[in-house]
Amino acid sequence: MATHPGGLTASSTSPTPGDRPTPDPDVPFPQAAAEPVRPPVRVRGLTRRLGGRTVLADLDLEIADNEFVALLGRSGSGKSTLLRALAGLDRDADGAGRVEVPERLSVIFQDARLLPWQRVLPNVILGLTGPGAADQGRARLAEVGLAGRERAWPAELSGGEQQRVALARSLVSEPRLLLADEPFGALDALTRIRMHGLLRELCQRHRPAVLLVTHDVDEAVTLADRVLVLDAGRITVDTTIDLPTPRSPRHPGFQGYRERLLAALGVTRTEGATS
Amino acid sequence: MTTQLDPETAASLATAAPYLTPVSPTTDPAVADGEAPDPTVVDTNAPDPVTPSAVPGTGVPDPGAPRRAVPTALAPEAAGATDTARGGSVRRRRRLGPGRPIPLGGAIGPVLLLAVWSAGSATGVLDERTLSAPWTVVATAGELLANGRLQESLLISTQRAGLGLVFGVLVGVVLALLSGLSRWGEAIIDGPVQIKRAIPSLALLPLLILWFGIDEQMKVVTIALGVFVPVYIHTHNGLRTIDHRYVELAEVLRLSPGRFLRRVVLPGALPGFLLGLRFAVVNAWLALVVVEQINSTSGIGYLMELARQYGQTDVIIVGLVLYGLLGLLSDGAVRIAQRRALSWRRTLAD
Questions:
Q1: How far is A120 from chain B (nearest CA, A)?
Q2: Which of A84, B68, B152, B303 is most enclosed, with most CB atoms within 10 A?
Q3: Looking at beta carbons, which residues of chain B come within 8 Å of A88?
Q4: CA B181 to chain centre
Q5: Whole-angstrom Cα distance, residue A191 to residue A142?
Q6: What's the whole-number mean pLDDT along residues B66-77?
Q7: What per-residue confidence (pLDDT) applies to B163?
Q8: What torsion, rounded to 10 degrees, do the Cα atoms B264, B268, B270, B272 define?
Q9: H-run or E-run covering A204
Q10: Rg (Cα) of chain A, in Å, rounded?
Q11: Would you state the pLDDT for residue A37?
């Protein structure tokens, strides 16, 4: 499997219809194949009830190939419920609706969720079988800056390193959709900034569609192509972030998005200034 | 006269009793200035016989003298401790924990017991018929070794315990897997095992003798019955308490059932299994004692039973010591296995 020696200049996976059973990231992006593609994520009329309370109400959502979508919402707004529905982790849930997701999807949880009794490399390739799995795992570990730590135990790593291993594990299967449930919520501010850069870089390289659930407006505006705000089970804001990357909060347009999104989340201007 | 905590003592105190925070009087500005000290300032440099406490005066004003000037309403405890207990020189924090560990403390009790036993035998207080002298026991062990009876008995006993252990562990693990991984398995298996748990092995012996006779089969079955229960209980518990988040992860990664079993379930249940194994090893030796003292013609228990008939307390004690050693050794072996198999848990402690 391909390593990407050239960093961001390396090629991306080609967006072909369906689930692409044999992706070859070494083939340069074939523009000719850009025929109308069914979006990897299509949600229609999704309703979920938890304990009698409607958490998601008749929700529609589409995410295009390679699109980075951030999902904002206050706690209890249904963010995680939506992500779990997409991940297929709510089979016993009470509700209705249709969810179409690609076969190859990965999830990054808030906790790194590494198996403590497995060393780093086996953790990365846990879901992978066949020859070459170890090489792929090593390549992904190198991408997240953890080359040489293959034989470490998860408990020997810092929280940020553990989350990077989790990132490597989620990318090792070359997913078409990456679901991330507040993946940086448990990290300190400095580590979080580094992880933002890493995630952006890796997503540009592997080009999965991403749904990032977060409660951090700055994180959403920094990373996403499109930001959604979920409120009381409905998407109340759906905005494309039209800023050059890499983004900085110092960019004049940044504050506009920030204030608008904070307002949508029910945070007043003065509160937002202090946070 | 001043008492000051030298760094070495402070360090040794800190390691011996980490819950005590040594506070040197010199670090407190109030004390150094000779003013009325803060009543909360304490000196933990206790007059432990093993602690070199006082360091000759270093020119720091006596913390005791100004302390007497502190109104007792401010620090009633300080006044009491200072003036009555320690002659007013240093105030001490009363040690409430058990204190520092005694070097080789674990050996003191057994050595004391041995000394009392030796003294009793030497002075004739202990009758040879009640309890043989320690040196008689050693001599008897030597004789038994020389004529080969000890090795022979040891071998046959170890064989029985080992066979029973192997079968018991196998049965325990298989039942725990069946019951831990399926609701139907649990419904069928768990109840009977809990019932078996409530019945002592000794109570089953009459039935087992009727079924299997009095030869080796009965003995191994009895031992296995004592072994499988703790293995089952702890392995089952280990399986049931595997973090649900890992199951979720396995579902997201679409692990096959076999891979899920090998990568998540079995390693996750290993700590529980090893704990069960430690109980199982002890149970194997316990069950061995039971089966070897009833209708047996070989083994350590038989050796002891025979000695009872002839009133040879020295041989009985050799047998008891052997049982004790075997138990300790096998438990130690399982602990080593535990430490190796669970090395991932110790990485931070190392």
A1: 11
A2: B303
A3: 251-252
A4: 32
A5: 18
A6: 44
A7: 95
A8: -150
A9: helix A189-206
A10: 19
A11: 66
Query: CB contact, 8 Å: A3 with chain B?
Result: no
Per CB-CB distance under 8 Å, the chain A contacts of B343 are 153
Distance CA B73, CA B215 (A): 80
Cα A64 from Cα A40, distance rounded (Å):
6
Q: Is the CB of residue B344 less than 8 Å away from at least one CB of chain A?
A: yes
What are A234's strand-pairing partners?
A231
Cα Rg of chain B, angstroms: 31
User: If pLDDT is split at 50, 70 and 90, which confidence band does A275 have?
Assistant: very low
Among candidate residues B168, B156, B151, the one with its CA nearest the CA of residue B277: B168
Q: Is B16 within 8 Å of B100 (Cβ atoms)?
A: yes
Q: Considering only CB atoms, which chain A residues are within 8 Å of B246?
A: 113, 115
Q: How far lies B158's CA from each of A254, B150, B289, in Å?
A: 76, 12, 12
Q: Which residues pair with A46 in a beta bridge?
A: A59
Cα B2 to Cα B78: distance, rounded to the nearest angstrom: 17
Is the reported ipTM for this assembly greater than 0.95? no
Which of A107, A115, A123 to probe the B interface (max B CBs under 10 A)?
A115
Q: What is the pTM of this model?
A: 0.68
Query: Does an H or E element contain A169, and which?
Result: helix A159-171
Q: 3-class secondary structure for chain B?
A: CCCCCCHHHHHHHHHHCCCCCCCCHHHCHHHHCCCCCCCCCCECCCCCCCCCCCCCCCCCCCCHHHHHCCCCCCCHHHHHHHHHHCCCCCCECCCCCCCCCCCCHHHHHHHHHHHHHHHHHHHCCCCCCCCCCHHHHHHHHHHHHHCCHHHHHHHHHHHHHHHHHHHHHHHHHHHHHHHHHCHHHHHHHHHHHHHHHHCCHHHHHHHHHHHHCCCHHHHHHHHHHHHHHHHHHHHHHHHHCCCHHHHHHHHHCCCCHHHHHHHHHHHHHHHHHHHHHHHHHHHHHHHHHHHHCCCCCCCHHHHHHHHHHHCCHHHHHHHHHHHHHHHHHHHHHHHHHHHHHCHHHHCCCC
The reply to whether residue B263 touches residue A111, judged by beta carbons under 8 angstroms, is no
- In degrees and rounded to multiples of 5, residue A118 shows phi and psi of -120, 145
Q: How far apart are CA A227 and CA A243, in angstroms?
A: 12
